[in-house]
């Protein structure tokens, strides 16, 4: 019989009451520490947002704000172009790319003409308004209000020569890949957008 | 329409689309006391499935009833804890 616990084998002396009591306390402590590790059953989600086009800003923000409504603990780590979503000035000026987008009702040769991205973006913005879909800014405010942790990758902030003050109030700065990985390891759901 | 429960508050999310009906319902429920019922009035057809999923996955709320009334979808959510 192989065991690393101090429990008695079949042919050894029965444990004294004192030893049993000690063993029970030991096990209770173990259960308590495991419960702390597992948490209170609250789900956790980490999204890594890497894209900064108008259309790609929506999925992480919609999922994050909805997950917060479920009472989940939500982190969105914004890196590379995804950082622009949190940039107060740039987030209101994200563009839809008309080129290389097979869903656009125009050939690439036409889509590549100057002003086409702007036109495509305007069209989409109009649709969004008519459909009662929230704006990117509304979704950011909503997410922050609900306690979503919107994180701006520090390396990308420096790479893009942004300033920490450029982001919406409430955005977490000074975080990197290790922070993101730590959140992912603790999460029930991890998404790369 | 005769409901077997008293409505405490009504949340009008007509015209708003995903994720607003769910997110606003959550905020409105937070302001209610245990046992109170929120009526959510939406025009988003996706709200039928979304409110159901949200209520099933959220502690302390119970979806009492969902009614399709023409172009309007009504949801009755009780705060249970």
Automatic annotation (TrEMBL), chain A:
InterPro entries: DsrE2-like, DsrEFH-like. Pfam families: DrsE_2. Residues 1-23 are annotated as: Disordered. It comes from the Archaea. This is Peroxiredoxin family protein. It comes from Natrinema hispanicum.
From TrEMBL, chain B:
Residues 11-35 form the UPF0033 domain. The keyword Transferase applies. Transmembrane segments: none annotated. PROSITE patterns: UPF0033. InterPro entries: TusA-like (IPR001455), TusA-like_sf (IPR036868). Keywords: Transferase. One of its GO terms (molecular function) is transferase activity. Gene3D superfamilies: TusA-like domain. The keyword Transferase applies. It holds the Pfam family TusA. Belongs to the sulfur carrier protein TusA family. This is TusA-related sulfurtransferase. It comes from Natrinema hispanicum.
């Amino acid at each position: 019989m192989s065991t690393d616990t101090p429990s008695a084998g079949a042919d050894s002396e029965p444990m004294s009451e004192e030893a049993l009591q000690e063993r029970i306390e030991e096990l209770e402590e173990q259960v308590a520490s495991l419960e702390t590790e597992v948490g209170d059953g609250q789900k956790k989600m980490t999204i890594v947002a890497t894209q900064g086009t108008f259309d790609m800003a929506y999925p992480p923000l919609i999922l994050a704000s909805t997950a917060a409504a479920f009472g989940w603990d939500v982190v969105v780590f914004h890196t590379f172009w995804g950082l622009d979503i949190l940039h107060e000035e740039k987030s209101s000026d994200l563009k839809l790319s008309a080129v290389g987008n097979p869903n656009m009702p125009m050939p690439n040769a036409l889509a590549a003409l100057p002003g086409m991205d702007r036109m495509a973006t305007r069209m989409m913005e109009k649709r969004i308004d008519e459909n009662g879909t929230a704006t990117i800014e509304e979704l950011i405010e909503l997410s922050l209000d609900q306690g979503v942790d919107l994180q701006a990758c520090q390396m990308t902030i420096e790479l893009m020569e942004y300033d920490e003050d450029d982001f919406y109030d409430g955005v977490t700065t000074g975080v990197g890949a290790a922070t993101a990985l730590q959140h992912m390891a603790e999460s029930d759901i991890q998404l790369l957008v | 329409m005769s409901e077997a429960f008293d409505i405490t508050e009504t949340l009008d999310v007509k015209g708003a689309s995903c994720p607003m009906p769910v997110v606003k319902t959550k905020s409105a429920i937070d302001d209610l006391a245990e046992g109170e019922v929120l009526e959510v009035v939406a025009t988003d057809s996706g709200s039928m499935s979304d409110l159901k999923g949200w209520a099933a996955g959220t502690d302390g709320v119970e979806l009492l009833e969902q009614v399709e009334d023409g172009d309007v979808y009504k949801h009755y959510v009780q705060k249970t804890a």
